[in-house]
Amino acid sequence: MSGSPISKFLSTDPQDVGCEEAMAVLHVYADLLHDGVDPAQRFPGVAAHLRACGPCEDDLEGILALIKDDSRLLP
Amino acid sequence: MSPEPDVRPPPHRDSAEWIEALRGTGPEHDAAVSRLHALLVRAALAETHRRRDRFGFAGRELEDLAQQVANDTAVAVLRKLDEFRGESRFTTWVYRFVVLEVTSRLGRHLWRRGDVPLDSQDWEVLPDRLGLDPAAVVETVELAEHIRTAVEQDLTEHQRRIFRSLVLARTPVDVLALERDSNRNAIYKTMFDARRTLRLALTRNGFTVGATTGGGGRG
Are B99 and A70 within 8 A, CB to CB? Predict the structure, then answer.
């Protein structure tokens, strides 16, 4: 069952920083990701959190989508 | 002792220009604020559109929402300008405000609409909710029963309520936070502790579940 949803659900990473800390640096994390730099190197606790928290991961996806659309969004 | 050197990268050139113009005065400042607002409207439209299925409306209503998001975000960005540390592009920092504001409004919208289930006692859905293999009938029933027992015997009343809402009822975490006058972080931490407790309980009962990445099964 390794890698299964139940395994993921029951697995908790002690490095996980929680939503508040993750949300505070989500823009930095998103920029690193966009620039092809592994953000987990600098923010291992945030990476652990994003693997487990769907809503925070969704927020990150939103920021990344906007970065990718930068040239169209900028007036 | 000399102060620790600032190792942060220099601000992006465009970011520096944004900050300088927004901190300035006169026509240059006014033009920068207008440009910021235009950017926020477009970003808010894109983000609300990305989540349109969850809002459950489109068209003019979505455009009005995006406008409100842009207005509120503009005020927040200008008020917090001094908190921009140049660790990201200025525009990415701004996008974070937009996304979090849309998240907040989505939670409030769903909560006010009142049709999101906030609790459930339907334990029949547990195997499906936890992605248990329906083909492995005996193992699935056994594991689901053990999880239910652990929820009832090992979790606190508060953890049980959060488990039932998030897992059985599939209440969005931001809606649950509003309902319980709490926040996403507190709900997540409650569930984090509950998941750890459940894993320990299952291990005690002979199931093996990895601490960070392992699977689960009868040991």
Answer: no
